[in-house]
Amino acid sequence: MSIAPLAERPSAGTPEPEAPEAGAESPEASSPEREPLPAWVFPPKRGFVAGDLDRLRGIPPHTELVDGTLVFVSPQTNFHMSVLFLLESELRRAVPADLRVRREMTVTLGKRQRPEPDIVVVHAEAVKGRKQTTYRPEDVVLAVEVVSDESEIRDRERKPVLYAQAGITHFWRVEEINDRPTVYVYELDPATRTYALMGIHHDRLKVSVPFDVDIDLTEIDDL
User: Which class for 76: exposed (0-12), middle (13-18), buried (19 or more C-beta within 10 A)?
Assistant: First the structure.
């Protein structure tokens, strides 16, 4: 039987060193370094402005600026994406030659307002190139928002006010009712710069302004 050298054996009465608790790191183990937070976590003294969305490095895709605050997009539902696909497809078929349909692009309404409608219809001459990231309110003929749980206050209350004050003539708000889209169609009253409700469309969206549109909303069942 081998015997440990005297220097390695604890003397009588000397307590054995306690074993570290399960899962505990030894003192020698270095703690992992924390990744530095990105610059856009901390607003500048002047606050965020519309142009910052093009300059901030590492900012999440589809970030909006509403009232000077960065708004990040939550994971979208099947309903939300199916409605976008249906409306985008049908609008592209319906728009006249001098208009273009764009999905999830921002509109710069002011210094601290750069929301991102789910869909916009813009004048063709407003499309300046492949690297363009935003439009002006005067470029926009129609703005569409599909309401989700996390965005309902913005989509129902704040954004319509911003779009109307900026002079965007037509606004649609899409709600989920019984697993189907219901479209609320608004038109701008130029005297008050507020939207007037022109109709509520359940199974079929048929309007003549800003151009002729006839969409079977029940087609979402097949998407």
Answer: middle
Task: Supply angle C-alpha 119, 124, 129, rounded to 5.
Answer: 90
Both tokens assigned to 67: 């009232």
Helix (H) or strand (E) segment spanning residue 196: strand 194-201
Q: How far is CA 102 from CA 53, 68, 91, in A?
A: 18, 24, 10
The model's pLDDT over 62-102, given as tens digits with 9 standing for 90+, comes to 999 999 999 998 888 999 999 999 999 999 999 999 999 99
Q: How far apart are the C-alpha atoms of 138 and 93, rounded to whole Å? A: 23
User: Which one-letter amino acid corresponds to residue 96?
Assistant: P
The Cα-based distances of 66 to 73, 133, 203 in angstroms read 13, 16, 32
Q: What is the pTM assigned to this prediction?
A: 0.82
The phi and psi torsions of 78 (rounded to 5 degrees) equal -60, -40
* Assigned token pair, 163: 């779009």
Using CA atoms, how far residue 123 sits from 14, 53, 92, 117, 136, in Å, is 87, 23, 13, 16, 11
- pLDDT tens for 158-192 read 999 999 999 999 999 999 999 999 999 999 999 99
Q: CA–CA separation, 90 vs 213, rounded Å?
A: 8
User: Are 156 and 187 spatial neighbours (Cβ–Cβ below 8 Å)?
Assistant: no
* Alpha carbon distance 214, 93 (integer Å): 10
Backbone angles phi, psi at 94, to 5 degrees: -95, -25
Determine the Cα–Cα distance for residues 218 and 181; give it in Å rounded to an integer: 8
